[in-house]
Amino acid sequence: GGGSLRRGVPTLRIGGQLVTTVFDLTLANYGVSREGLPGEWPQGYEDPLPYTPAWQAEITSSRLA
Questions:
Q1: Which Gene3D superfamilies has this protein been placed in (predicted)?
Q2: Which of 2, 34, 36, 49 is the most exposed place for a label (fewest CB within 10 A)?
């Protein structure tokens, strides 16, 4: 089932506005953990969180190598 994950994204305040980069958003979306950021991150390929091989195998019925 669908759900949501909370993941930290590095930000800066520029001119009173909170900003980040598309790169940082993409890394968070794909579950690339980064030291010092809070959130739920995959611990390895066998972790069934989104975008890991285990997650993909569950959806596509493919085997993990």
A1: 3.40.50.12440
A2: 2
Amino acid identity for residue 60 in this structure: T
C-alpha to C-alpha distance for 49 and 62, rounded to whole angstroms: 16
Count of C-beta atoms within a 10 Å radius of residue 63: 7
With b for 16 or more beta-carbon neighbours within 10 A and e for fewer, the 32-41 pattern comes to eeeeeeeeeb
Residue 62 has pLDDT above 70, yes or no: yes
Which H or E run contains 19?
Answer: strand 17-19
pLDDT in tens, 2-48: 678 889 999 999 999 999 999 999 999 888 889 999 998 899 888 98
41's tokens: 């991150």
**Per-residue tokens: 59:** 């959806």
